[in-house]
Specification:
Length: about 100
């Protein structure tokens, strides 16, 4: 228990920032109209390419016997790729709605 309290005391500023980010994110998302929600989310999903690059860097710097880092890196690459592809699919479907109907 003491080790947990020491870790919290050492990372107190980071914990405050994460909690503040959570509240700010909830407020911002709550104020977005539903018409804009899908385009904003599909764009945000495409930004997850940064997650893919970061995961590749982590996997490249990990030691060969550090299986936890390699597995988490692989999982981050897979999930980040799915998120990016999903963002582009949603954007493509939205753009199809605005095209004229074929005769």
């Amino acid at each position: 228990m003491e080790t947990i309290l020491n870790w919290i005391a050492a990372h107190q500023q980071m914990i405050y920032i994460v909690v503040l980010m959570i509240f700010v994110g909830i407020e911002i998302i709550g104020k977005v109209p539903s018409v804009l929600h899908t385009p904003l989310m599909s764009g945000a999903n495409a930004i997850h390419g940064v997650v893919i690059i970061g995961a590749i860097i982590v996997m490249g710097k990990a030691e060969a016997d550090n299986y936890l880092a390699l597995i988490l890196g692989l999982l981050a690459v897979i999930l980040g790729t799915l998120n990016v592809v999903g963002g582009f699919v949603v954007t493509d479907r939205m753009l199809e709605m605005f095209k004229g109907k074929k005769k």
